[in-house]
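Hi L., both proteins are below.
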Amino acid sequence: MNKITIIFTLLIISVLAGDATSQESKPAVQSLAFIAGCWEINAPARKRLVSEQWMIPVGDAMLGMSRTLRDGKLSGFEYMRIVQNDTGVHYFAKPSGNKDETAFKLIKWSANEAIFENPSHDFPQRIIYRLNSPDSLLARIEGAMNGKVTGMDFPMTRAKCV
């Protein structure tokens, strides 16, 4: 073999090894740090304010909470957490009015997106967080409702944490 063939062969091997490594990588809570911070949907015309706050990932967990105000009064809230354990990364949601929390498993992630899924849950079956810009986070829920596949978007902007 000449030098060029050897170099080319080594280059191909290193690229293939890098692809295999990236495909086998396991998700980590730290990969979801883009969600951390304070976010809100301010809809004055509807007299509605939705606030969501996530703590930075520490100890293989992120803690979050949200609240919805209608006409200045609390109309709903939710406690959330994202936890990493031996079976993967899971999103747990406990909305006001629910006795138990619901778990969703992280099924897909990238530097600015996380998709969690629980096919056996009534609605939603999927929760998506996508960072569109440093000051724009889209939360989306999807699933079957009344026999029809539907989705709801929650476009949030970065807010001051108070």
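That was the first. Here is the second:
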Amino acid sequence: FDFSDDGLTATGPGTLTGIDVDMREISEVTPTIAALAAVASGPTTIRGVGHIRLHETDRLAALAAEINRLGGDVRETSDGLEIRPRPLTGGVWQTYDDHRLAMSGAVLGLVVPALEIADIGCTSKTMPDFPDRWLALVQPD
């Protein structure tokens, strides 16, 4: 991971590996890391983020529910998630009116065919033009 003023950039080999990480200081990234972990080659443990249960929604419960709905294997802990990758299938990813959930679903949709985000418009809270920017990223001219 590379942190800069522009944000977070994740780069690596063709296969993502699982991690064990305390994300207390970067908890806003938890939904995206959970989405990536769901398609990694090994298990991931995310710790130190129990407080994100109190954001727009209970983000831990929402992530577990949505990844599991697609066929994943996620278990909530008191302060995080344990994610064991499994093949995922498409479906509707609920956003719970939470911009971070919508954005993490979009990331997961890059590798899970037929994944539909229920309310991508909720991203307007932090990035009103997210749907157009995302479309330009995944379907360039």
